[in-house]
Design a protein that fits this description.
The complex is a heterodimer of chains A (120) and B (406). The radius of gyration of chain A is 24 Å and the shape is flat. Chain A has a domain at 27-99. Chain A has 120 residues and is an all-alpha fold. Helix content of chain A is 49%, strand content 0%. Chain B is α/β, with parallel strands linked by helices and 406 residues long. Chain B has a domain at 4-54 and 161-170 and 209-403: Rossmann fold. Chain B has 15 helices and eight strands. Chain B has helices spanning 4-20, 45-51, 58-74, 80-93, 106-113, 117-142, 145-156, 192-204, 213-220, 245-250, 263-276, 311-324, 350-361, 369-374, 377-383, and strands at residues 163-164, 232-236, 255-260, 280-284, 297-303, 325-335, 387-389, 398-403. In chain B, helix 1 (4-20) crosses helix 2 and helix 5 crosses helix 13. Chain B starts with a helix and ends with a strand. Classes of the chains: A mainly alpha (120), B alpha/beta (406). At the A-B interface, helix 1, helix 2 and helix 3 of A face helix 3, helix 4, helix 6, helix 7 and helix 11 of B.
Chain lengths: 120, 406
Amino acid sequence: MANAKKERPDFAVDYVNGDWDQVTYTDNVHIDNLMDAIVGLGTEVWALKRRNMVLEKLLNEKHSGLQSKIEAYVPTDEERVAWAAERDDFISRIYTVLARVPKDTSGDNPTDKVPFIDRS
Amino acid sequence: MVDMERRTALATASAAIAAATTGSAAAKTSGPSRDVKIDPNNLTDAQKKMLGIRFRKLDPESHLDFVTGFRRVLGRQGGSRASAEEVQRYLKSKGVSAGQDTDLSHEDSWNLMVQNGPYAAQLRLMCSIQSVMWDRASRALHADRHDLLAALEKSDVSGPGKLELDPDLEIPDTARHEIHQQPGGYCGDPLGGFVYHHAVTQGFRAGTADHDENHIEYTQAHAKPTDGMVNRILDIGCGTGQSTTPMKMRFPDAEVWGLEVGAPMIRYAHYRAAKMGLDVNFRHALAENTKFPDNHFDLVTDHLLFHEVAPDRIAMIVPEIFRILRPGGVFSHHDLLTEGHPTIQPSHTVPGKARLWETRRHNNYETHYLAYSQSDFPEQLRKAGFEVSFPPPTTGTRHVTATKPA
């Protein structure tokens, strides 16, 4: 029966509490926990970076009422595209390592030359 | 709550859309009904304002934006290529072909796959990001719990469409699961509709449903009776109503109903439709006991309902749909794959079977999905009396058209 007789009815009922948050995927629960925490950390870092982008944008415009403007700011279409690219790069930089697959590193060290690193 | 600026924009847009979609049961005809074509890729600014949503604060929007990017970069689409090669290499080392059907059970396939480190790590990441998606959306919306519940309470008795809530509805345990890992599922969180819509639109569906584009696409593809007469429509298992309101936009003269077992979901569906100014009705009831009269509807639709429903309930729902459709009426079914489709069935490979098992139990928590995928749903429709046909797919999912003989 739904919970409709409260002072403010919410119509919610008891539910079957899943155990999906208890599942361990790797053979070491600490690795699962670490990965879980890293994902959560990234979420917070990205939120900070995104907020900074909004802040910088608004500060540069020297508008008053900064706080409410920050909360209500809607990115332009161009910003959405640029921010999405920035976000994807950020995620690649930090998390691609987590998807690394095993490689055969036995035997001699590699000798093949590769182009020098150029970040210009 | 949305702020005043956004609320004003929403109201203005809603009025414009409502003016374009007026009409109701009063406009019933015995001939072909007005059928409006809507291009989800060319929505007007007014339509986008009406259909879009936003968190009140910036941070939850950013959290969900991160989820979108994470799934895109490291998820099944973006990060699976190297993983697929690794899976092939791993299975080959176990004497198994990744591309051939297997006699292994779903559980054994899963047990084999999860021993592979990269596969397990990929699952860990996807499960973790899904938890983040629900958690951040839920926290943000529950911070405004009082205002949102007050808004629902006010909306419950507002129009233009009506909401029929049944506080005494006995909901089977099989419908009370935390589907997709959503805290409380569809029934256990009073803000479940808000949470679902915000999280799925801004996280899970990753830019394909910001303005219901995905929903408009597949509802435009729903079949209709050959006589073209669509006076009454029922969207069964309507959830947040995102598959219901597009049917009103498509058939503006029809009487449109949504039906849903989760009260928090259907309250939100009604709240949103009312905000849009759309005359759509919602009934809180079981799909196996809709309480509508015999031969009542011209068109019954569903979107991704049945793979979340227990087999014994499906066995009751199909005859109920047959009962409430008029002769010549159509049930347009839109869901994931089952057996019995003439051209495409669920995968029987080790990775495919493992995926189905993990989805049921370890990832996405779709308790009944595996059983549904193993069933011959088209044959169930035929046994109930339907004539079954298979239109070409429009999205990643499949339509099945079931017609009640005239």
